[in-house]
Amino acid sequence: MAPQRRHPAPTAPMACSLLLLALCLAPPAHGSRVQPTATTSKAPPAPVPAPPPPASKATTTAPPESDEFLAPHNKARAEVGVAALRWSAGLASAAAKTTSQQQRQSGCAFADMGASAYGANQGWASYRARPGEVVGSWVAQARYYTHANNSCAAGQQCGTYTQVVWRRTTDVGCAQATCGTGATLTLCLYDPHGNVKGESPY
Ligand SMILES: *[C@@H]1O[C@H](CO)[C@@H](O)[C@H](O)[C@H]1NC(C)=O
């Protein structure tokens, strides 16, 4: 399956847009490594009354902010009876390296994580989005997901949600970068990766 990627422009015409990106991984074929493909989906209008002023430089998320990422992940997991994730400084550092690179080289556009061994959820906002808000937008896909038949409603995307609640994933690390336009790129990396096609997350 060919990857479909939609890279937001550095200067988005739409105010307060929040885009999501999840990796969907194919099952291993004949013992070979899984071949990841990416899908994109557009979130409903973000419930933010007024965007804060643009930041002047890139920021990365340090361990004290890890709870802002971790808590909404683990709340969503607890709701479906899946064990909590633990924070990985190594994954957070790898995520920060990628978001910094995107900040410097491509105006905070989505990173191409197709070759990564980790699961990857991304969020792009035209404003400075808080970690909890971005993870919340991923978890909000749960409304389109039916566990009984492991399917997503037609025309919807569930991949960022299913990675959040993927049972075999044990570790997560995340980072954000903010561009001069005020846009925020958020990336969480998951180990082991989820979203293996044909498998149920939990
Ligand atoms: C899965 O179940 C839901 C809820 O019953 C239903 O709306 C949907 O069509 C089903 N999807 C598939 C692919 O069977």
Automatic annotation (TrEMBL):
<feature type="signal peptide">
    <location>
        <begin position="1"/>
        <end position="31"/>
    </location>
</feature>
<dbReference type="Pfam" id="PF00188">
    <property type="entry name" value="CAP"/>
</dbReference>
<dbReference type="GO" id="GO:0005615">
    <property type="term" value="C:extracellular space"/>
</dbReference>
<feature type="compositionally biased region" description="Pro residues">
    <location>
        <begin position="44"/>
        <end position="55"/>
    </location>
</feature>
<dbReference type="InterPro" id="IPR035940">
    <property type="entry name" value="CAP_sf"/>
</dbReference>
<keyword id="KW-0732">Signal</keyword>
<dbReference type="InterPro" id="IPR014044">
    <property type="entry name" value="CAP_dom"/>
</dbReference>
<protein>
    <recommendedName>
        <fullName>SCP domain-containing protein</fullName>
    </recommendedName>
</protein>
<feature type="region of interest" description="Disordered">
    <location>
        <begin position="30"/>
        <end position="69"/>
    </location>
</feature>
<dbReference type="InterPro" id="IPR001283">
    <property type="entry name" value="CRISP-related"/>
</dbReference>
<feature type="domain" description="SCP">
    <location>
        <begin position="64"/>
        <end position="198"/>
    </location>
</feature>
